[in-house]
Design brief:
Layout: E1 11-15, H1 20-31, E2 35-40, H2 43-55, E3 60-64, H3 70-84, E4 89-92, H4 107-135, E5 139-144, H5 157-177, E6 182-189, H6 195-203, H7 208-215, H8 226-237, E7 248-251
Parallel strand pairs: 1-2, 1-4, 2-3, 4-5, 5-6, 6-7
Length: about 260
């Protein structure tokens, strides 16, 4: 007997949903029946995501905003409740990378990466948790970590620091808010074919074909696709994971296995 995943009646908010993993997750959640709000600074990309959600029969909304700014976060959560009446799922996916060492990284880039990758999770969760409790009586928060939040990587000091913070924030939030029915987990992708990964190749001055080939050096011998990560997000958002909290699910084709 097959087991389907249904999110009918639930509302999800996805940050960084204009492209890549965020877009794939928004589509996956909508396919399972959730109504989805997408938050991103990229208005054009966000509109494309909303169009994809409509194509799969989903009810969707785009909110243009900077998730590292509290006033934008508060406005986004308020608009979700005004539009859909509740909030059940928060996917904190917005993230950026700078490929630098401590000697080549600027203070401005350090602050920006930490603001987008870490501070945004604090702000979004702080705004969302009371709303989840009030409107849904429970909730699922999923944060995007990284394999480099578990192990270090070359020329990526601030990214590694930010993603390690995300993973341990996830554990701390799970402890704090579990008694209130809020589950908090993280999903840590390996190299995934997104615009951000292609940006990394450009930053390092590597041809994409070589960068892509190196990224496939893992037991499953291929680059990840956004849908691979989105499936893990769907699991963590659904009732199939009702006793899973404080976990970091690595989705990397075996890259961290050795």
């Amino acid at each position: 007997m097959s087991v389907g995943i249904s999110l009918e009646g639930r509302v999800a908010l996805v940050t960084g949903g204009a492209s890549g993993i965020g877009r794939a997750a928004a589509v996956r959640l909508a396919e399972a029946g959730a109504r989805v709000a997408v938050v991103d600074l990229d208005e054009a990309g966000g509109r494309e995501t909303v169009e994809r959600l409509h194509q799969v029969g989903g009810e969707a909304a785009l909110i243009v905003g900077d998730v590292s700014l509290d006033r934008h976060v508060q406005s986004a959560v308020k608009r979700v409740v005004e539009r859909f009446g509740r909030l059940d799922i928060l996917f904190n996916n917005a993230g950026i990378i700078r490929r630098r060492t401590v000697l080549t990284l600027s203070e401005e880039d350090w602050d920006r990466v930490m603001a987008v990758n870490v501070k945004s999770i604090f702000l979004m969760s702080r705004a969302a948790i009371p709303v989840m409790q009030e409107t849904a009586g429970r909730g699922s928060i999923i944060n995007t970590g990284s394999g480099w939040g578990v192990t270090g990587g070359a020329e990526a000091v601030v990214y590694c620091a930010s993603k390690a913070a995300v993973i341990n924030m996830t554990r701390a939030m799970a402890i704090d808010h579990g008694p209130n029915g809020i589950r908090v987990n993280s999903v840590s992708p390996g190299d995934t074919d997104t615009g951000m990964l292609r940006q990394e190749a450009r930053e390092l001055g590597q041809p994409w074909a070589l960068f892509e080939s190196d990224s496939k050096d893992r037991p499953l011998a291929r680059l990840g696709q956004p849908r691979d990560i989105a499936d893990a997000v769907l699991f963590l958002a659904s009732d199939l994971s009702v006793w899973v909290t404080g976990a970091n699910i690595v989705v990397d084709g075996g890259g961290l296995a050795g």
